[in-house]
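Quick start: what a row looks like.
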Amino acid sequence: MQKSTRKKLVVGIFTGLGIAIVATVAMTFLYTPGFIRNLFLTDSKELTVVTHDSAVFPEELLAEFKAQTGITVKQVKAGDTGSMVNKLILTKDAPIGDMFYGIDSTFLQLAIDNGIYDPAGNYTDENGPVEIDYADVCINYDKLWFSSNETAPPTNIGDLTKPAYKGLTVVTNPRTSSPGLSFLAASVAVFGESGWKQYWTALKANDVKIAAGWEDAYFTEFSGSSGKGQYPIVLSYSSSPAFEIRENGESQTVSLLDACYRQTEYAGALANGKNAEGATKFIDFMLSEKFQTALPESNYVYPVREGIALPATWAEFAPAAGKTVGTTLDVAANRELWFAKWSEIFDVN
């Protein structure tokens, strides 16, 4: 064999071995969870956060986060919590954002079961997505309306079925609204598996109004808010009266704390999102003292971080419920059954 031919053969062999080694190493990395995403997608300077319609990020806090990280936060509002989860499930292969905020404990398991949250490489605690805040869902009423109409206000959720309150109550659809699902769960806890359907049947007979989401119910239909609607009883939160303080220093509204259901809201990176690293940084920021301190005024919720001082008015007008209901219910296991039976009562799908 000629020297030149032998030399070409040796070079070819070593070249082939080199290509094979490089290919093997490359394939090893490519099949490492999150490698492709982390290699190509974590340098993005924009982070898209999908939230429910009521979530608010104060501009000054977003500006501070950008100054710290160089990342601009873009918020995408996707309806009330139930609607948001449905959208995230339908778009999970090509998500509409990089992370979510505001999926609460009533809908969280549905989100996880449908694969919108991928813990591989994402910011996570021992149990999955990270707790950010909590709120107590309960009935509120308009004190001014009841005093003006010389009518005694309700004292518990059972009163809402009485003739005196016919056509006065607006609640939200549990299929699309997390407060709605929370109130449905509360009714199961209070009236039991044998009684909650009778309770909702009685509410329907008493002309309860079903709104699609909390914002519609509270800001459009409720008489005690800025919307000045026609319904003096609304499903809302124990914190809501703190935002209805009038010039006389008194709140126009009151919460009924007899049957509150506690929601915890979470944040997490979305599977197939483009900026997992940015999501991690923003969740860290959301747990910071400054962000947690802003939550009561901006989002009507209580911070999860201990030691955060609440606004002065909250002690008088927005106390968290001393005792909540439904803590032992398995909402994830029963949600679809409850939905089906509730829908039969209200003739909706």
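That is the whole record. The radius of gyration is 26 Å. The first strand starts at residue 46 and ends at 51.
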